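RECORD TYPE: inverse folding
INPUT: structure tokens
STRUCTURE:
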């Protein structure tokens, strides 16, 4: 199979634990792009939090894309055109806020280039460090939402959030896509919006078949795109149930797992790509 697109989660997949890309991985991805393969970044992060990685891999030069907010936005990184955007209504945000209070967990969202929350907490601080976005503590979460938002996160201790996840996945099945991106992040987007569904839209736009796509990830919010892709890859550091749905399991994010897939399935193949 000649693969024409590589889709990569960021945290704990492309990025090592120190949030950098290994030299070996960067070299492999740059060589793949030089051969005409699209490298697409797909993350739960907001768009701003993906910018540095997109620039490091020269996505604009190669006419590629990013899927931010768990697929809530698709952006042509060369033109910066937003070709797909999903948002939550104010009433949906009100409901999620009330549910967070009922369950006794923290909640935050993104307004502009800030993270909005009522309560300072260690998990929102982690999100700030990952994305580079500052945290704005507001007296009223709902009053702080001054524009349409793409997603909301309920955040708390992982064991507590496991219980909340099971309950709200059942309760909100008809209203939202609900997924875990990290043990302490439970994410809510518009129903039907996932990395997998947005990847489907993107390849249709690019004229690429799903069989020609490699998708790599490590967590539950990557499951749909791993199952969608022709070659779905789980990282060696992924939980066992994500490995179980993958076609292939690579090494860990700290041991060049992405590079090893690119080298095995793309770079050793000298066929000329269209």
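DESIGNED SEQUENCE:
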């Amino acid at each position: 199979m000649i693969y024409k697109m590589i889709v990569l989660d960021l945290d704990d997949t492309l990025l090592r634990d120190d949030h950098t890309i290994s030299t070996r991985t960067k070299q492999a991805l740059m060589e793949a792009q030089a051969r005409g393969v699209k490298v697409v970044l797909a993350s739960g992060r907001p768009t701003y939090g993906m910018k540095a990685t997109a620039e490091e891999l020269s996505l604009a030069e190669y006419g590629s894309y990013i899927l931010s907010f768990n697929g809530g936005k698709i952006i042509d990184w060369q033109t910066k055109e937003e070709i797909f955007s999903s948002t939550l209504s104010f009433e949906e945000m009100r409901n999620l806020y009330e549910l967070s209070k009922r369950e006794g967990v923290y909640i935050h969202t993104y307004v502009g280039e800030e993270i909005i929350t009522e309560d300072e907490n260690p998990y929102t601080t982690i999100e700030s460090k990952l994305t580079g976005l500052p945290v704005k503590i507001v007296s009223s979460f709902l009053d702080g939402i001054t524009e349409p938002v793409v997603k909301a996160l309920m955040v708390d201790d992982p064991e507590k959030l496991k219980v909340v996840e099971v309950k709200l996945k059942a309760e909100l099945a008809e209203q939202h896509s609900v997924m875990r991106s990290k043990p302490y992040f439970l994410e809510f987007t518009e129903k039907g919006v996932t990395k997998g569904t947005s990847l489907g839209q993107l390849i249709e736009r690019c004229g690429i078949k799903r069989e020609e796509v490699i998708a790599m990830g490590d967590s539950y919010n990557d499951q749909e795109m791993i199952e969608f892709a022709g070659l779905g890859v789980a990282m060696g550091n992924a939980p066992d149930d994500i490995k179980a749905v993958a076609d292939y399991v690579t090494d860990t994010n700290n041991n060049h797992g992405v590079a090893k897939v690119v080298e095995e399935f793309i770079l050793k193949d000298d066929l000329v790509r269209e």
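NOTES: The chain has two domains: 5-85+193-267, 90-190.
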